[in-house]
Amino acid sequence: MNLNLYIWRQKGPDDQGRLVRYEARDITTEMSFLEMLDVVNEQLVKNAEEPIAFDHDCREGICGTCAQVINGVPHGPREKTTVCQLHMRHFSDGDSIYIEPLRARAFPVIKDLVVDRGALDRIIQSGGYISVHTGGVPDANTVLIPKDDAEAAMDAAECIGCGACAAACPNGSAMLFTASKVAHLALLPQGRVDAARRVCMMTETMREEGFGNCGNHYECQAVCPKGIKVHFIAKLNREFIKAQAKHLSGKSKKT
Amino acid sequence: MTLEGKVPAGPLAEKWDRRQQEMKLISPANKGKFTILVVGTGLAGASAAATLGELGYRVEAFCFQDSPRRGHSIEAQGGINAAKNYPNDGDSIFRLFYDTIKGGDFRSREANVYRLAMLSNAIIDQCVAQGVPFARDYAGYLDNRSFGGAQVSRTFYARGQTGQQLLLGAYGALSRQVGAGTVRLHPRSEMLDLVGVEGEAKGIIVRDLVTGHITPYAGDAVCLCTGGYANVYYLSTNAMGSNVTAAYRAYKRGAFFANACFMQIHPTCIPASGDHQSKLTLMSESLRNDGRVWVPKTKGDRRNPAEIPEAERDYFLERRYPGFGNLAPRDIASRAAKKVCDEGRGAGPGGRGVYLDFADALGLLGEENIRGRYGNLFEMYEKITGENAYRQPMRIYPAPHYSMGGLWVDYNLESTIPGLFVLGEANFSDHGANRLGASALMQGLADGYFIIPRTIAHYLAQTTPGRVKADHPDFRKCGEEVNIQINSLLSVKGRKTATEFHRELGKIMWDLVGMERNEDGLRKALRLIPELRNEFWENVSIPGSGTGLNQELEKAGRVADFLELGELMALDALHREESCGGHFRSEHQMPDGEACRDDASCCYVAAWQFRGDDREPELHKEPLSFENIELSERCYK
Asked: What's the burial of B597, exposed, middle or buried (CB within 10 Å: 0-12/13-18/19+)?
């Protein structure tokens, strides 16, 4: 099949950027979306033109590196599918496809479809872990965890950190990303010890990095390639309120 | 020179303790004076950087990905081994050690493998403490599954995403240290050279992939945790960015490269669908717990699998290896699959595939249970192929997956360059000629969490902290050489893309240095690869410049190194006159087609020393001695 592509080209962070039309010819249905872009890029390189820069790595939907906005939707039209796992059998000959970078205030464009998602790392650095040193920990079966809790924690832990949630959100909020880590750890007994500190630090960093707040649009859940549910945001809110209450009661005891 | 493995004396079970007693320590007050450069942030790199940071060293951590959470370890699916013996099925440290040595076809160091088995239990404890959500049973205890090459269930798992969860655990620990200020992170940064000062590793040259700046970093020691080189085959299960550049450039600076030809070809991958294919996707080995592998008995049988009656199917793994059946080790299962396809009995387009059939398990356990075990893998299979594996068997075919070979290291994980330590897949140490499933994660984390913190201290304690700074003339010289290479790549201005060269190299490697090798083929590869390399340097096209983000330049630099590594692999494969593990020479096989090992003359590690672009590397041999187990034919029947 042949396709009309309208792809965002931007030389660097300070460049204005614009959509440029390309033709993708002789695309087969077995190709992945990124392999279709590979074909376009191969042709550009052969013509000594600069290929379209885009992030990708595992091409198995797990590393979270790829994330483009395809026809207005981060990761494109298929449910629970990263761009790298989107295949061309879901498109038709003659289709026009618009390809843009993830857009959120906290994700500045580096070049073309490549954005800087360092803000997500900084949210994790501010508290998205259990404070344990290497060594000196108890046997793994000392603390039993009900299967349902372990499964729920795993549901949240599946987040691949691609940032699609923030790009889909009208508020540019990273709430689903943050909530998935808060919930994953808060659901496990090991994670309870620093749960209050964690939720406060992570939400504070999220705000500082320029992400908005949750407005219950649920766009994040709709685009999440791992199907992470917004009820984890409710869990985050609950953890946050508990942390505030703890903080307040701690204060009242002191005074 | 003689290669000194530095294995401690004493009984096997006491060696690591003895070594820890022998080694020097650094007091807490002095650790902060030392800077350690950690390259790569997969399981080995992230766990090493985090742990060294916790101990109080100053750590600089580098990765080419945009975030340290994205190392290729994240793709590991099935699980991680440990000798916990929770299921009470007869496992022990010694059994895990023995299975791993045997799985590696007796081409690894006893002491290293024993230490790995010993540390395996502490890894699971550590990961659970970090919040890794391993699978559990209804009583709340940890669950185990079986994996290839073992008759006990010792594999811990988190659905089909064990690598992801372990890496996120290590990434959490690393992030904590970044927050604490002990680790400084350098994402989108690629190491392009190793700087040696007076024969010791004291720094690296790094290209910032966003700005294009070439920056020298000085340190008191360097840890390479840069993964494997299966991408030399172009199509592999590795991530697109996985490359050999850091390890290869260290080799060119004097670190020996060991057992380069030991490459694991994984049996269960989704077959390629056409020339456009950019990578191959693994279907976890854990699927072979419940899936049965078969092909039609008759050559050229093109019927729909559902129409082929039971009596006309050949469950070739169960037939040839009744003891282990579908859980035969990877090298053996891969070769068996290739054999039936070569006989014209393969399934799917081009006959390059075998069926992995879940019909029996679905009948026995029900779709819900199968979904619980492998749901995400079935989903992934459907996304890629458009086929529903609950209704029809999967089609699978072998693909390059893991390099057992890598930079040579001694028992302390130190390379032949003092101060250069190599961890995880980037080293050669623990898997011999074939790695068993669920052992890569174990090794990466053992190296990073538990081994390097001890051994690097011993090295550092004998040095003066901060002795070499990045303004040392050797750094300037090395940086200039990196710039010259980048500029010569950019100035070729040819007509072929780096990807085209990579694809051609991959074809040579797959056809001639792949699952089955022979002398003629290897000699042909040794002729073709240099020809292709010469053409590359005359005709590669790289648009753009060295400043700013240039993904074609990154790719071309990596392909340039693969074009040299491929030759080293062929040379290593040619010199090793035996078949063992992933290295199968068709001249050396039993009458029934099994690998024929030659313990009398080939029981050694082959370590290659670079001697210049125009000279053949020099071979050094580290003999392998087995004091605790008997070398035996590796039988899975």
From this structure: buried
CATH superfamily of this structure's domain B12-24+34-262+404-460: FAD/NAD(P)-binding domain (3.50.50.60)
* Under 8 Å between Cβ of B452 and B413: yes
Among candidates B89, B593, B586, which has minimal Cα distance to B332? B593
Contacts of B370 (CB under 8 A, 6+ apart): B290, B358, B361, B362, B378, B390
Q: Which CATH architecture has domain A3-111?
A: Roll (3.10)
DSSP state of B143: P
Choice among B292, B330, B533, B576 that is catalytic:
B330
Query: Cα–Cα distance between B535 and B613 in angstroms, integer?
Result: 16
pLDDT tens digits, one per residue of A83-130:
999 999 999 999 999 999 999 999 999 999 999 999 999 999 999 999
d(CA A44, CA A28): 19
Q: Give every residue of chain B whose pLDDT is below 50, as ranges.
A: none
Residue B613 burial (CB count, 10 A)? 7
CB B264 within 8 A of CB B403: yes
CB contact under 8 A, B240 and A61: no
How deeply is B80 buried, as exposed, middle or buried, from its count of CB atoms within 10 A (0-12, 13-18, 19+)? buried
Q: In sequence order, what are the residues at sequence separation of 6 or more whose Cβ sits closer than 8 angstroms to the Cβ of residue B272?
A: B235, B280, B352, B397
Q: Are the Cβ atoms of A144 and B240 closer than 8 angstroms?
A: no
**Alpha-carbon gap, residue B408 to B413, rounded angstroms:** 8
Clarify whether B330 is annotated catalytic: yes
Contacts of A42 in chain B (CB under 8 A): 497, 499-500
**ipTM, interface predicted TM-score of the complex:** 0.97
Say which amino acid occupies A153. Answer: A
What superfamily does domain A117-254 belong to in CATH? Answer: Alpha-helical ferredoxin (1.10.1060.10)
Rounded to a whole number of angstroms, the distance from the CA of A127 to the nearest CA of chain B is: 7
Nearest residue of A to residue B173 by CA position?
Answer: A129
- Check B278 against A154: CB less than 8 A apart: no
pLDDT band (50, 70, 90) for residue A251:
low
Subunit contact A141:B544, Cβ cutoff 8 A: no
> What value does the mean pLDDT take over residues A7-13?
97
- What are the boundaries of each domain within chain B? 12-24+34-262+404-460, 266-401, 473-611
The two three-digit tokens of residue B381, written as one number: 């299979």
User: Is beta strand B200-208 parallel, antiparallel or unpaired with respect to B189-197?
Assistant: antiparallel
